[in-house]
Amino acid sequence: MQSKGRTAPWWTGVLTGVLSAAAGVALATGLAALLTGVPSPIESVGNRAIDLTPRSLKELAIRQFGTNDKPVLIAGVAVTLLVAAGVAGWIGLRRPRVAYGIFAALGLLALTTAALDRTATASRTLTLVPALVTLAVSLGLLAVLLRTLELAPRAGDDVSGSFDRRAFLRAVLGASAGIVLGGVVTKYLGKNAAADSRRAVRLPAAAEAASAVPAGAQADVDGVSRFITSNRDFYRIDTALRVPQVPVEGYSLRIHGMVDRELNLSFRDLLKERLVERRITLTCVSNEVGGPYVGNATWLGVPVRDLLARAGVQSGADAVKTTSADDMTIGTPLSALTDENRDALIAVGMNGEPLPLAHGFPVRMVVPGLYGYVSATKWLVDLEVTRFADFKAYWTKRGYDAEAPIKMSSRIDVPTSFQTFPRDAVRVGGVAWAQNTGIERVEVKVDDGAWQDVDLADEDSVDTWRQWSWQWDDATEGSHQLTVRATDKNGTTQTSDRARIAPDGSTGWHSVQFRVA
Ligand SMILES: Nc1nc2c(c(=O)[nH]1)N[C@H]1C(S)=C(S)[C@@H](COP(=O)(O)O)O[C@H]1N2
Ligand SMILES: [Mo]
Questions:
Q1: Which residue of 9, 145, 472, 492 pairs with 426 in a disulfide if CB–CB is 3.0 to 4.6 A?
Q2: Over 90: is that where the pLDDT of 138 sits?
Q3: Which residues are CB-contacts of 302 (< 8 A; sequence separation ≥ 6)?
Q4: Ligand 1, CB cutoff 6 Å, lining residues
Q5: Is residue 160 predicted with pLDDT exceeding 70?
Q6: pLDDT band at residue 3 under the 50/70/90 scheme
Q7: Which CATH number describes the domain made up of 409-516?
């Protein structure tokens, strides 16, 4: 018998909701970690959020959080869920049915987002299991906990009642144990089939190795980027909350569409092809002027044009649509892939190693001169020869241009913002790139002074960035601004017009404030 208008304290309800949801999600996350290609419920909700997020918000997230946008999104989803669950539990003290309803709705959200999750590579049925576990565990715990909170009349007291504290405590401990178990399984027992597979890969030597990097390619100024970006430092941009797991066992690349002969190549088949090594500077369209989303690596791979020639491209095709294991679609002009003067690669190696998992293991595409979102498909599984008129790629649907050559740009690495130099040692430097065309000239100016030519480091190739350095000999004390601009080998100088990253890449000059003391 429950006395009217009285319930257990509000916080017991909140705790009930939070613990029930957290235990359900934690156990499901542990389970997902044991299965290959099955996202956890939080990831599936996050993945859906990524695909539904308007472009402007994505740009904001990248600007605000950089490559941390993923942990921030995961935390956002988790906090929202726990708040909703806490409120549901609190309401449940008076109206248990409403609480069950809210939990059922959250479970339904988990189920739908799992069903729609394009990053899942396991079977649909398996993909739904974590969401079902979440639903069952959370609802079950909610029911158990809410029952322990029902008020029973105290002996000799018919006005107030009390709930069964021992039973409540037991249930709280049970739910907490579920959370700990899920966490431990996720952290220590989680499988990564792709990591295991990668460890076993031995790449053959290149049939055509890259030439040595020219000795003078690295600008001699402390703090300027390394000419070759290490795999660890290489920027990462993708929509994958969790890196897709694509073991080489069972891997196959399908080449089809407007071709005479469809090809299906296993990872071993690819390694038997003529592998060439090329240094290529990759750039993201999301790179703001002066931004970090650019990197230069040595890639090992099969020239795409070799495979296209074997497949036999039919007339009328003007595009290649590539698809990744996580269902990212990317459209690339066919001409860029068949161009004899630019080695577009189906890459398997990066800086002497198999591709890192986050950079597309086991196979990705790399095309000199095109922004990543129109060329650099990671976890590549499907290549279709087609026409631009016949499809829209992921980012094209979201307002970015279908074709996007990398825009010439230059960046100041030294000084960093508000760095202070002694007057006799104002040495600055950075990088400039104009893939496919090459950098001819870089100039800097201090404040509103005249443009001055810098020292250009040696060129490696037109497809790699070029470093530069400059010394300000008659430096004056005080605060200054350094600005840089580049000119390519066609004689075009970087425009000062500021363009935003959408729809086809930023423009403008990079400036940095510094001090001379
Ligand atoms: N599967 C997949 N491939 C992808 C992307 C992605 O989101 N998913 N992002 C592209 C973009 S926008 C860029 S700039 C490059 C970045 O490659 P990196 O992370 O190895 O630097 O990958 C491209 N390939
Ligand atoms: Mo990108």
A1: 472
A2: yes
A3: 270, 273, 274, 275, 276, 345, 346, 348
A4: 234-239, 282, 284, 324, 326, 328, 359, 372-373, 376-379
A5: no
A6: very low
A7: 2.60.40.650
